[in-house]
Amino acid sequence: MRENPADLLPELFVLGAAVGGLLAGSFLPRARQWIVAVLSIAGLAAGIAAAVVASRRTDMMTFDAFMLDPVTHVTRIVVLAATLLIIVLAVGPMRGHRRESEFYVLILLAALGTVALGAASDLLVLVAAYLLASIPGYALAGFGKDAPGTEAGLKYYLMGAFLGILMLAGVTLLYGLGRGTAYETLRSGLATAPDGAVMAGVVLLLAGLMFKAGAVPAHFWVPDVTEGAPPVVAAFVTTVPKIGAFAALYRFAVEALPAGTDDWPLLIAVIAAITMTLGNLAAFAQDNVRRLLAYSTISQAGYLLLPIAVAGRTDLAKPAVLFYLAAYAVTNLGAFAVVIAVGRDGIREYAGLARRSRLLAVSLVVCLLGLVGTPPTAVFVGKLLMFGAALDGHYVWLAAVAAVNSVASVFYYLRWIVPAFAREPHTGGNLDRTAQWTAYATAAGSIALGIASGVALSIG
For the whole model, what pTM was predicted? Predict the structure, then answer.
């Protein structure tokens, strides 16, 4: 068994920044808490660099539970890069806050848990990662200490705790059936276990992972937390935890489930169809842009479940889920960056945005139509891979449902885009400059990733 701490260098950089930030924040005066933000950015940047270097090594298992392979490498890079953008977006709104350093530390710890979630190859490590990714999020949801934030934090915590208990029950059942917690042991042990008991354990385990993914039936927290939490937190919880959740789902399907498990693909396919349809239908009636983005993220979870349903049945499943995760992260963060820059939540309050900042309005268009899957954005390539994986995995009906939902989603995104270019006097105060530039960068990144997708996929 390999037990070299250097294999976990990206995670150690993030952990070091979190611990250092917590200690520094205890002694720094309130006016200089921004130093913790700088420390966090440095730790994340070092973690990304270490992850890129590690991605060139051969696949291996470390500490008998942490898998280092393309799934982990992509999870590391995307999670840490997205978290770095979140920290940049938070610097302005959090400046001078009496718990500024704690905010950055909580973000780092949640990101660390998300990375572990995607790399775990053992049920016990998966549960520990779930807790580390979740508990800081509960505190972040109620960070504003106002009525909507408190309600959001309470709902987030109660649902996470309840579904976490179901997840533990599933882990216990699978451990008993498979005679171990390591995925390799489970794959051989579950092959001889009763199918009904195995699926019961799988369904219970899915409760926790679907909660982190924001998919049906564990999606109820998403709109309330997205609307009630601070905008930066909303951007974080609708983007970063999903990355680890879907990486964990893919790894569990490929490494832990025995070959020939026919109930799993159908179960995931049905959940995917319901999730994308419910998210799109609910988004149509939203006049609050944050709730609209919340239901949009639910629908995106449905699309991301599609390659999970065909994992192990087609070689397109892995590149589809990994590329889509990267594409979704940059595009969704771009949309939230526009919301943070404007500082308003009503769709009508975006009237005349193009007259205030044409580039910001264009960035909004790129990100929203990017979420639809409009070329040449990154999500377009991700959806092509997704459709290809569904067809190759003999789920034509699910590909058709995803295509219909993608077309339907255009209409509620246009409800936000059209007022932004209307010839009306603009309303609102000054735009957040940092969020503006973040929106420009993410919109450009979405297009660049889409154009360079061939290079990115060949490297993977």
Answer: 0.95
CA distance 272 to 53: 35
Encode pLDDT of 213-266 as tens digits.
999 999 999 999 999 999 999 999 999 999 999 999 999 999 998 876 778 899
Q: Around Cβ 188, how many Cβ atoms within 10 Å? A: 12
Separation of alpha carbons 254 and 125, rounded Å: 17
Model confidence band, residue 459 (pLDDT cutoffs 50, 70, 90): low
State the amino acid at position 451 in one-letter form: I
Averaged confidence pLDDT in the chain: 92
pLDDT at 347 over 70: yes
- Distance, in Å, from the CA atom of 416 to the CA atom of 374, rounded to the nearest integer, reads 16
Which residue bears the tokens 């006016």? 31
Nearest to 80, CA basis, from 319, 244, 293: 244
